[in-house]
Write a structure and sequence with these properties.
The chain is 41% helix and 18% strand. The chain is of the alpha+beta class and 218 residues long. Homodimer. This is Transcriptional regulator MntR.
Length: 218
């Protein structure tokens, strides 16, 4: 039985492994977990002894097959709970992360599988991130940044790159959410700012905003 802290480390290392070509460094883990490198070293030793990761000096950390699967199941629980909180309990998408951080440590596999079925086997969470299925399989759909779209294109909001509360609250105020149709009315060549239409309302957004909204083409 893993502790909450051990599960959090596996999840963090899994996420870091998606952007690291080689092993994940101790410093990267420490930064991700907001802790000291010495604490990371102690945890790496514990998880290595339990068979969840491999560590080689100067080559960093990599998860074993069991470690990857365990990390994916924690992520699966987290993202399913986020869907439940948003769709069934009307939480806003900037509120769900902290609550899901607690719920992701529930151990009942039966509960999570029933939750998945109850929600209709969603493929993505409220932020557009893929949800691993019960076998640990992850299906990633093709997405683009809104600022990559041209004038007169029509697209659907499918996620965000920036998941900070400030950004998500901004999107809520603009009525931009997952599944919303976005029409690019015009695009300024000088700074790539855009005039877009959402729910028959036009608004201007900066390139910074457009660079943090993920869409799929319609």
């Amino acid at each position: 039985m893993l502790t909450h802290s051990e599960e959090n480390y596996l999840k963090a290392i899994y996420h870091l492994s998606l952007i690291e070509d080689n092993g994940v460094s101790t410093n990267a883990i420490a930064q991700k977990m907001n802790t000291k490198a010495s604490s990371v070293t102690d945890m790496i030793k514990k998880l290595s002894e339990k068979g969840f990761m491999n560590y080689q000096k100067y080559q960093g950390v990599s998860l074993t097959k069991e470690g990857k699967m365990t990390a994916k199941m924690v992520i699966r629980k987290h993202r399913l709970w986020e869907v439940f909180l948003v769709e069934k309990l009307d939480f806003s998408w900037d509120e769900v992360h902290i609550v899901a951080e607690e719920l992701e440590h529930i151990k009942s596999e039966k509960l999570i599988n029933k939750l998945d079925a109850f929600l209709g086997f969603p493929k993505e969470d409220p932020h557009g991130d893929p949800i691993p299925n019960a076998k640990g399989e992850v299906f990633i759909s093709e997405k683009f940044l809104l600022n990559e779209m041209d004038a007169n294109q029509i697209c659907i909001c499918v996620g965000v790159k920036d998941t900070s509360s400030e950004f998500l609250q901004y999107l809520d105020r603009q009525n931009i959410a997952l599944g919303k149709t976005i029409i690019i009315k015009s695009k300024e060549s000088f700074d790539n700012s855009m005039v877009i239409e959402v729910n028959n309302v036009e608004l201007m957004i900066s390139n910074k905003i457009a660079n943090n909204i993920l869409v799929k083409k319609q």
